[in-house]
């Protein structure tokens, strides 16, 4: 009966309810009330003071239902906790993705993956994958930033090609057949970027690719070939 009245009170005067919960040592209720007020820092401070370990996963799920951005903030706060994040990064990411919150998942991952650690290769791949499928321009910006080094490059190369990010695909492929397949999409590749990519190839591979460009579209690609020859001095 008492808790029912307090639950009603929290909808009217949250601050008063919190004071009563604290005096009553109703720790889980205090934590829930702080979450309702989006005072996530107070959850961590209060829990540490009273020696209480909240169900962080449940809290995150609860916040996520009504406040996706608040959930991002809370997840980031957890990631900075002393002793490490109490909820696995991949689990947190999946909670966002289950609700199709791609931008929120991306915001969380981009922050926690800043150290660019080898053990985060799977998550680096994941954030690139989900954006290449849904928001290719975001994935392109992440790749342009060069913040990740440990993702699955062959997998990302395939997704870049599928998304029409041909220059990114070329930068990731390492086999000549793949490069030859992608490089003929000159209608969708900025000429200067293509010319510069040729500069990264061996002489033999560059000549092979030039042959394919001429075979596919002699008239349309002739000017590009001329630019490549000047830039790379292949002939």
Explain the overall architecture.
The protein has 235 residues and is mainly alpha-helical. It is built from 16 helices and no strands. The longest helix is centred in the C-terminal third of the chain and has 15 residues. It is rod-shaped and about 80 Å long. The N and C termini lie far apart (89 Å).
Strand share of the residues?
under 5%
H and E string:
HHHHHHHHHHHHHHHH
Helicity, in percent?
Answer: over 70%
Which residues form runs of ≥5 with pLDDT under 50? none
Quick one: how many beta strands? 0
Rg (CA only): 26 Å
Q: How large is the count of helical segments?
A: 16
**CA-CA gap between termini:** 89 Å
> Which class do the helix and strand fractions yield?
mainly alpha
Average of the residue pLDDT scores: 90
Largest sheet: none
| Apparent shape | rod-shaped
Key structural traits:
235 residues; mainly alpha; rod-shaped
Task: Summarize the topology.
Blueprint (H helix, E strand, L loop, with lengths): L1 H11 L1 H10 L3 H10 L3 H11 L5 H11 L1 H12 L9 H10 L3 H11 L8 H14 L1 H10 L7 H10 L3 H7 L3 H8 L7 H8 L4 H14 L1 H15 L3
Helix pairs in contact: 1-2, 2-3, 3-4, 5-6, 6-8, 7-8, 8-9, 9-10, 9-11, 11-12, 12-13, 13-15, 14-16, 15-16
């Amino acid at each position: 009966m008492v808790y029912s009245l307090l639950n009603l009170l929290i909808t009217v005067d949250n601050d008063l309810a919190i004071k009563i919960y604290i005096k009553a040592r109703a720790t889980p209720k205090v934590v829930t009330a702080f979450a309702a007020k989006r005072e996530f820092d107070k959850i961590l401070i209060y829990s540490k003071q009273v020696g209480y370990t909240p169900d962080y996963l449940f809290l995150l799920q609860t916040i996520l239902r009504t406040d996706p951005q608040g959930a991002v903030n809370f997840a980031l706060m957890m990631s900075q906790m002393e002793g490490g994040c109490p909820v696995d990064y991949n689990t947190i990411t999946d909670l966002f993705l289950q609700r199709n919150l791609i931008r929120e998942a991306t915001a969380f991952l981009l922050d926690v993956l800043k150290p660019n650690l080898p053990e985060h290769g799977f998550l680096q791949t994941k954030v690139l994958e989900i954006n290449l499928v849904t928001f290719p321009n975001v994935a392109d910006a992440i790749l342009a930033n060069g913040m990740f080094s440990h993702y699955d490059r062959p997998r990302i190369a395939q997704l870049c090609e599928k998304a029409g990010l041909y220059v990114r695909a070329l930068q990731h492929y390492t086999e000549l057949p793949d490069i030859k397949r992608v490089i003929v999409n000159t209608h969708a590749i900025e000429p200067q970027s293509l010319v510069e990519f040729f500069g990264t190839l061996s002489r033999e591979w560059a000549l092979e690719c030039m042959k394919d460009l001429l075979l596919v579209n002699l008239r349309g690609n002739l000017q590009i070939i001329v630019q490549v020859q000047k830039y790379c001095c292949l002939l």
